[in-house]
Amino acid sequence: MKIFDVHIHFPRNWEKPDEDPAPMVDRLAEVASAAGVTRACLLMGGRFGPSHERGMEIAQKYLDLFIPVAVIDPEETGYEGVQRLHAMGYRGLKLIGVARAYDDPDYMPAYAAAQDLGMPVLFHMGVIGGGLDYSITHPRRDPKAAQAYQRMMAMQERTPARDVSASRMSPLHLDTIANRFPKLKIIGAHLGNQGNYEFASSVARWRHNVYFDMSGGETIERHAVERRLIGVEIGIEKLVFGSDCGMDDIREHIDRFEVIYDKLGLTEDERERLWWRNGAEIYGLETPAFAEE
Fold this sequence. Notes:
Blueprint: E1 4-9, H1 22-35, E2 39-44, H2 52-59, E3 66-71, H3 79-88, E4 92-95, H4 108-117, E5 121-123, H5 143-158, H6 171-180, E6 186-188, H7 197-206, E7 210-213, H8 218-226, E8 239-240, H9 250-264, H10 268-282
Parallel strand pairs: 1-2, 2-3, 3-4, 4-5, 5-6, 6-7, 7-8
Helix pairs in contact: 3-4
């Protein structure tokens, strides 16, 4: 079984942000491969971690595994900026935490360049997760949650408040972009994210090159089953696998999806599409096949 993971972040020690990340990338490559990942998009640069240049230097060692994807701020990176990233070796883009809605007219030059260069774009959808999921835990009753809370508070002392809004990162913005750039490959993260599932399914239903990854953790996975988001509300061909978790959790993430696919009674062909082929087609590693008369 081949696995294409469209959503792996460049590793970073958040408590020691100046630490050399190269050894962590070595370990990420080892852990991801051992978990069964065949190819993966490695999201690099942007507001956190090393520069795009340094990230690419480190990733060169693992280009047989990782596809370099540049995290960009469209306030700063336009058409020429995307061209420079492509020349540097990046083959996709990632957006999150934008200052304006994803479909703001000033962001269109970046998307135009991505379409012209054949670079898929992964968009974070909805609320950005934090260190604690209060739907399942709380520092008052969980010692590990209490420790995580303390770490979060300490990091907040070192970093400025974020200008972030989930309303700027809606699946409906992908409809605007897809209509404007019909050849651009678009992936919305987290099945649109909690509260956005219906919007996500509606956009996936009608826009040919809009897909959604299934990352986001156990709550979103539970919703995917309960709300029939896999193969019913969103067609099998419109979904891709993404882990978006700590490197030591990738194998567990894959195991949970094996259970989900069993529960849904998916065929071998459907599983192969979700694990590998859909993502591989988006990134040009497989040629899309169409039904014949």
